[in-house]
Write a structure and sequence with these properties.
It is a single chain. By secondary structure, the chain is of the alpha+beta class. It has a single domain, classed as PRC-barrel domain (SH3 type barrels, Roll), CATH 2.30.30.240. Helices cover 16% and strands 34% of the residues. The protein contains 2 helices and 7 strands. The strands form 2 sheets. The protein has a 4-stranded mixed sheet, with no helix packed on it. The protein has a 3-stranded antiparallel sheet with strand order 3-4-5, with no helix packed on it. The longest helix has 10 residues. The chain is globular and about 45 Å long. The termini are far apart. The mean pLDDT is 80. It holds the Pfam family PRC. InterPro entries: PRC-brl_dom (IPR027275), PRC_barrel-like_sf (IPR011033), Spore_YlmC/YmxH (IPR014238). This is YlmC/YmxH family sporulation protein. It comes from Anaerosolibacter carboniphilus.
Length: 93
């Protein structure tokens, strides 16, 4: 068993590309089914989960592969593009 406090102290890492997505800012719970539906991680441009324009990452429970001592490994096959990467791409054009 793990508490939400313990979950929030673990860094989220995508196994597909090795990207460090950050730490959990919120947890979406389905009260009808009594389960966690998703973990919410602030976008890379946000400070403490606030003050930023990037969208949050919503990681569904099905994308979680392993909850370890220090990290949570997820498998997200969709390309995750940060605002900074998108801006850099448009600057090159």
């Amino acid at each position: 068993m793990i508490s939400t406090t313990d979950l929030r102290q673990k860094e989220i890492i995508n196994m597909v590309d090795g990207r460090r997505l950050g730490f959990i800012s919120d947890i979406e719970v389905n009260l009808e089914k009594g389960r966690i539906d998703a973990l919410v991680v602030p976008g890379p441009g946000k400070f403490l989960g606030f003050f930023g324009k990037d969208h949050d990452y919503y990681i569904t429970w099905n994308e979680i592969r392993k909850i370890g001592m220090d990290v949570i490994l997820v498998e997200i096959n969709d390309v995750i593009v940060t605002k900074e990467e998108q801006d850099a791409f448009h600057d090159e054009l």
